[in-house]
Amino acid sequence: MLGFSEETPSGGQGRLELARHLNPDHGNFFAVNPWPYADIYADVKQYIRESDYSRYNLVDPVIEPKGMSMLQMEVALAECYRKFYMGKIIEVMTMKDDFKRRYMMRATKLFMGSPFILKKLSLGVLGKLGMRRDR
Predict the structure, then answer these.
(1) Residue 109: its pLDDT value, please?
(2) How far is residue 122 from each of residues 1, 54, 69, 75, 84, measured CA to CA in Å?
(3) Is 63 helix (H, G, I), strand (E, B) or coil?
(4) Is 33 helix (H, G, I), strand (E, B) or coil?
(5) Is the pTM of this model over 0.85?
(6) 30-89 confidence digits (pLDDT tens)
(7) Closest CA to 110 of 47, 31, 26
């Protein structure tokens, strides 16, 4: 989970390192989305910048931490996914277990082709940063 009120730009890197250390087959990095009835809501209410509950989906950040902007939160989430799965590709391609290698390649391809990932990695975050897709 990323996006607690005390989050810093290096927080995503710490979670990425933990994920790499634990080495799961798949990794997910979610944004903190505190619904009004959640225990944490009162603690983070002043940092909530999104009131459209359709965006409370664990993908889009709704909290602007003290030390980060909303755009930095989006970038941190996207970078965690990108770096995690780019690091997994060599491991997956060199797996000796043919069944697991084929499964992991199919699952990773499906995941990386999901609208969420494509939005975050190409048109979404990178577009907001002024980067062009053809580079």
Answers:
(1) 83
(2) 22, 22, 20, 11, 17
(3) strand
(4) coil
(5) no
(6) 999 999 999 999 999 999 999 999 999 888 899 999 999 998 898 888 888 888 988 888
(7) 26
The residue written with tokens 């992991």 in the block is 104
How far, in whole angstroms, is CA 5 from its chain's centroid?
17
Nearest to residue 81, comparing CAs of 113, 55, 57, 104? 113
Q: 74 near 131, Cβ under 8 Å?
A: no
Q: Which amino acid belongs to residue 11?
A: G
Taking CB atoms within 8 Å and a gap of at least 24, the contacts of 114-122 are 116/59, 117/81, 120/59, 120/74, 120/77, 120/78, 120/81, 121/78, 121/81, 121/82
Reference 75, options 26, 23, 5, 7; nearest CA is 7
